[in-house]
Design a protein that fits this description.
four-stranded antiparallel beta sheet, 1 helix, mainly beta, Neuraminidase, single chain, 24 strands
Length: 328
Amino acid sequence: MMIKHGHLRGTTTLLAALLTVLLLAPVASAEGVGTTSLPGSNGAIAFVSAQDTSTTRMQVFRMNSDGFGQTRLSDAQGHNWDPTWSPDGKKIAFTNVVPNVGADIYQMDADGSDEQNLSRAEGYDSLPSYSPNGKIAFTSNLGGNGFDLYMMSLGTNGQITEQVRLTAHVADDSGAVVSPDGKRIAFTSKRDGDYDVYLMRAAPEGPKNIPVKLTKNAVNDYGPDWSPDGTQLVFNSNRSGNFEVYRMKAAPEGKTNRPVNLSKNPADDTAPTWSPDGKKIAFNSDRPGSDATTDLDIWRMRATDGANPTNLTDNAVLDFDPEWQPLP
């Protein structure tokens, strides 16, 4: 199983059932990838939803940060998820999955126009994350030995001009998110037996670039997202017995860096994404909304302490994978 920046596919019963029906290979997400948030004002939130009953496919939507103005954007054949915003907020990259065929990285304008297949590869390319310089980090099984991290460079025509493999480990590495300054990537890896969050320079792994393990326990920690100032990370963990959203400094866990549980709810809370102003965090949750249903919805809470949780998509269908639009 691969892990996205935002969440682990399968941590929620509803989502696990969905993926089984779709017959996906171990593709990550319904936890989120992850966008690189740059300091600035808050824009829209991209997310994935099944609310458009004219299609049975999962599609990328956008909404205002208060939950209003929900609009479908994607239209590519198959299922579309893992949305991530470009640094200028004008583009959205996402994963397009065609069951029993594969997955590619797509890009479209922020209004859903001009969809393009960027990777056009056999196998599974997923979980895109923009770097400030416009490159896109992503997860792929191109190497044929599990999933690794890659970085693509794009030409003016939107086609790949260069592709660099960042990790080459026997364990799955996935869900890279690029730091706001573009110098580091946080990602999820199972190289020590369970899923943990790691940090490395945004360059190929090697003797001079050895990934540093940040989370240290025997449960699953995954799906990091950067704070706009690049000093902190939010991530998912089931260290409390259910999946919660945690915040910690972007440094190894220890006595002076204890992860803080922000969500504090018996439901499964996953897929955190930081607002560009650093004040709020959007996330997935199957906690009951005002309609009393426990399907996945998008919620928002205060970044410092998890206060004022607010349901943004209160309906009876799946809504997940929130990603906040950066507006420098």
